[in-house]
Amino acid sequence: MSQVLEDDQRIIEFDVRTDEMLVNMGPQHPSTHGVLRLVLRTDGEIVSELEPHIGYLHRCAEKIGENLTARQWIPYTDRMDYLAAMNMNLGWSLAVEKLLQYEVSEKARHLRVLIAELGRIASHLVGMGAYGLDLGTFSPFLYAFREREKILDLFEEACGARLTYSYITVGGLTADLPPGWLQRCEAFLEQFEPIIREYHTLLTTNAIFVKRTAAIGVLSPEMAVDYGCTGPVLRGSGVDIDLRRDGESIYTAMYDGYAFEVAVMKDGHYPRDHEYPAVPVDAVLGDCWHRFFVRMLEVVQSMDLVRQAIDRYSRCKGPLGEPLKLAEKLPAGDAYLETECPKGQMGFYLVSDGSAIPWRVRARSSSFSNLAVAPELCRGCLIADVPAVVGSLDIVMGEIDR
Amino acid sequence: MRGPRFIDELEAAVPGAVVGRNLEAIDPWLEIAAEKLLPACRWLKESCEIRFDGLQCITAVDWFEPDAKKAAKVAWEPHTELVYHLWSTVARVSLVLKTKLPRWQDDQTGQIPEVASVASVWRGADWHEREVYDLSGVKFVGHPDLRRILCPEDWEGYPLRKDYEMPLEYHGMRGR
């Protein structure tokens, strides 16, 4: 080789360049929240492309729904987002009630709010704890599960199950609360409230946590809407949408008269932000930190809603009402309804030909759309940031794969 | 919905797009001609006063009755119906679009029907269209990467079609 070529800088670059490498992450990776497989195309430490492979939990629940009556499908909705099964039950029940144009009793309405908001707290606690695990800290997980366990105990008392409840059902709820339940729930809230400050010191303001999440995986509001992202992922980008306030009337009627502020940053401020730690200077609206923080704010907001619901429910005099028959005939037609679940807007669509068994059921999963944006967020980030980004979307595979 | 004014504008902007409507239904819907779907969607997102900037869901409904006795009684012809649920994050209104497709292209069993992809209008449509392709067998022309998403790549058939039968065996596993 001639002297000229040996000194050529480009040839030296070529010799030491790193090859593009395909790295397979999952499907049994601990930080992919279930059986999710990510294929990363990496150049050294930089991820140039990320491709999620899903479907490992696919059971074709929609096909099963074409062979069962509307109420019989309730347990299958439990197994979609198994961390917030109460909210799944509620979404499907309301969609069927929308088609039937059926209204539940006032007491059932308040009990549904109470249960759904407790479910939201439980789901966000798992989201918070598991996010800590993703970033390599184990303790917050234990703290979060300690409190979640108490919510599960309350649910178990109310309906007998700890995870797959089928408690909220078409036409109401399967049973009323046992005696003394409200007092125990109030005692839990009393004990839970000061602990939230503890969570904030563990993660929200933790210097390492902020370094790992601030300005990582920034999702612009336009992109969030374009991809159909919903829930805390959308609100974390500063889009002021919460179906509990902006949804369809059959759903917002549940929250009529309840006072709450949507947890979203407006003019640089979160609602009631003097009560919480300040937003770190490094954080950018739409990054992992903000998505996490919105969930933490929603825990407090849900606690408020639970308190209001306890108050209203205990003042309701009338009976709770019986749920509809197991094989209630559905009118011919179709109805689509989205509700604000902890992970985002979960939509249920059913088409009926006039019999008791729906002709077609469809579950529009919020995690499905939220995960679809992950390749965009991870382009150009470090391999170590991939769990931070995917974890901040708070996905649950049971709901994505259905 | 705010009233049908924007529907007239849609008809003017994309002639022949709206072929049916039911504004009294629980969820008011418009039926869009399959070949006008893409321009109609683009207009609804980009030019309509109520900007339908969000695509929430795409569903395929298989209108087919496998039981010959029951099939004789139904009022509809067998077809595949695509249902698009749109909404506007600004005006907070939703809209349902329905499109009718044949169950099989040119009546040839095994030839899945084709329709234009709207993934270029809403990027979120990408995965939803892959799911419809995977489970209901609709080919979205112009989709950037149309492959199965929930079922394995070598899966055969479209599970959400009414005449679907589980395979007897898949890679040595018993199906039914």
Q: Explain this structure to me?
A:
The complex is a heterodimer of chains A (402) and B (176). In chain A, 50% of the residues are buried. Chain A has 402 residues and is an alpha+beta fold. Chain A has one domain (50-401): Cytochrome-c3 Hydrogenase, chain B (Orthogonal Bundle). The longest helix of chain A has 29 residues, at 106-134. The mean pLDDT of chain A is 87. Chain A has helices at residues 3-7, 9-16, 61-65, 74-78, 85-100, 106-134, 139-159, 181-192, 195-204, 207-213, 221-226, 232-235, 243-246, 249-252, 288-315, 366-372, 374-378, 386-392, 397-401; strands at 20-25, 37-43, 46-53, 168-169, 172-173, 333-341, 344-352, 360-364. In chain A, helix 6 (106-134) packs antiparallel against helix 7, helix 6 packs antiparallel against helix 15 (288-315) and helix 6 runs antiparallel to helix 18 (386-392). Chain B has helices at 5-13, 37-46, 68-71, 125-136, and strands at 18-22, 29-32, 54-63, 79-87, 94-101, 114-116, 139-141, 169-170, 173-174. Chain B starts with a helix and ends with a strand. Chain A binds chain B through residues 54-55, 58, 60, 62-63, 98-99, 101, 223, 225-229, 239, 241, 246, 248, 333-336, 338, 345, 347, 349, 351, 359-360, 362, 364, 368-369, 372, 401-402, and chain B through 25-27, 53-57, 59, 61-62, 83, 85, 89, 92, 94, 96, 122-124, 126-127, 135, 148-152, 159-160.
Number of helices of chain B: 4
CATH level-3 fold name of chain B:
Beta Polymerase, domain 2
- The count of DSSP E runs of length 2 or more, i.e. the number of strands of chain B, is 9
Question: Which spans of chain A of ≥5 residues are poorly predicted at pLDDT below 50?
Answer: none
* CATH topology category name of chain A: Cytochrome-c3 Hydrogenase, chain B
**Structure class of chain B:** alpha/beta
Radius of gyration of chain B: 18 Å
Which strand order spans the largest sheet of chain B, edge to edge or round the barrel?
Answer: 1-2-5-4-3
Straight-line distance between termini of chain A: 61 Å
Radius of gyration over C-alpha positions of chain A, nearest whole angstrom: 23 Å
Which of globular, elongated, flat, extended, rod-shaped describes the shape of chain A? Answer: globular
Gross CATH architecture of chain A? Orthogonal Bundle
The CATH homologous superfamily of chain B corresponds to NADH:ubiquinone oxidoreductase Nqo5 subunit
Strand content of chain A: 5-15%
- The span between the termini of chain B is 46 Å
**Overall pLDDT score of chain B:** 87
Largest sheet of chain B: 5 strands, mixed
Biggest sheet architecture of chain A:
3 strands, antiparallel
